[in-house]
Protein 1
Amino acid sequence: MDLELNHPVALVPTMGALHAGHASLIELAKKHSEEVVVSIFVNPLQFENPNDFSNYPKSVSADIELAKASGATKIWVPTFEEIYPGDPEIIASGEIGNIFEGVHRFGHFDGMLTVVKRLFDLVQPKCAVFGEKDFQQLFLIKKMVAQFNLPIEVISAPTIREASGLAMSSRNQKLSVSERDNAAGIYKALNLANSTPDLATARSQLTKGILAIPNFLLDYAEIIDGDNFSIANDSTSNSRAIIAGWINGIRLIDNMVMSNWSNLGNSK
Ligand code: PAF
């Protein structure tokens, strides 16, 4: 495998189709290490739907430019055989891998953890950067690192948004202009929930906000405890609203910490 690295390394795992959100992850990685590896690998194991896998946007040359311009020192585009030379050891995502995203994307998190563990084993980074947009993914990666006692710091990076508030995603490019406008309603719904005085009002405002999004097919919207993914209650100190759904066949997810009324950190 052609992967000569100057350790210590910061790793930014991606599936390509890079955008400003990825650029921010790479820039953050650069603050932690001179050597920044960006991997580009569309991992078939984490796609529960083969069409979604084959239609996943690809733009490797543009990705390489963007990664370099953002500070990457090595852009690694491994083959399937490099990542999975034999039958991979599947990493089980457990209970939390089977709720919310896991209900709607069966097996997704096992496949995601399996590839992230392989990338970690192959690159041996001192740290790796992941976006908060995929909050359940981030949570499960941190849990896996603790479970295997890996000497890797998992760094979370804030969600980067379009001017409308829509969370940046490689999938956004498949939305028409009007669908993008509608998709910005997800951010509005999250803000609506956050602008309330308490959990009960937040839940009803979240629902109201979602119902106002034209042509949005909801998978789930909930306010959870960001520390353990249980359903938030009045004493939850780290509440976070999470939403996922579809606009014209494009899956969109987002989340927001409920900082206005959740008693952040007081119970820790
Ligand atoms: O978030 C992603 O792009 C992917 O799930 C990841 C972490 C690169 C694993 O394939």
Protein 2
Amino acid sequence: MKKIIAVDGPAGAGKSTVSKIVAARLGYTYIDTGAMYRAVALKVLESGKPVEEVTGDIEIKLDEAGKVFLDGREVTKEIRTPEVSRGASDVAKFGFVRKKLTELQREMATQGSVIMDGRDIGTQVLPNADLKIFLTATVEERARRRFEELKAKNFAADFEQIKKEISLRDKQDSEREIAPLKMAEDAVLLDTTNLTIEQVVAEILRLAQT
Ligand code: DC
């Protein structure tokens, strides 16, 4: 059984949805690294302070139930707004932010039996992962999924606007200088455009067991 699984890919490809299910089926810990960049962005937005200042003494914790804590306060819901999504992609450009979160993420994975998702897990955070998956889907399909997700949570949602924002985040995440979104050479590419969640989960479980 593969003990450390890295899942990377663009926004809305289904990383967190399938990673959570795979973690539950294998009894693994799921680590959502995007939530950590979102927590940094939330702190910047709430405090109005520059990211350099905010990152120095920040405390970010993820619990087993998927709750996110920023400096001891639960922010699980607050980090899911479109404003924080944009902010997370912005703060993710800074080397000092990435260094701090990468160290934390490596520490969280030392026990093994983890599935970690993000943008640079297979390439930077856990280059020795036992299994690397690169999940992708067309921008239309990813926007459609985000649209449905936001609607279900009662956030105001506009499909064209979401598509524009996803395209912008794709560009920003793929073109940044430090640790850009990129498929690791030894990753397995899974295009989820025409696959159900269960089909993607089954394929990852199959790969984890071989
Ligand atoms: O996966 P997500 O949408 O929650 O991620 C939010 C942003 O955080 C994403 O646009 C880029 C950044 N991110 C990153 O740079 N590296 C990671 N490992 C995870 C997220």
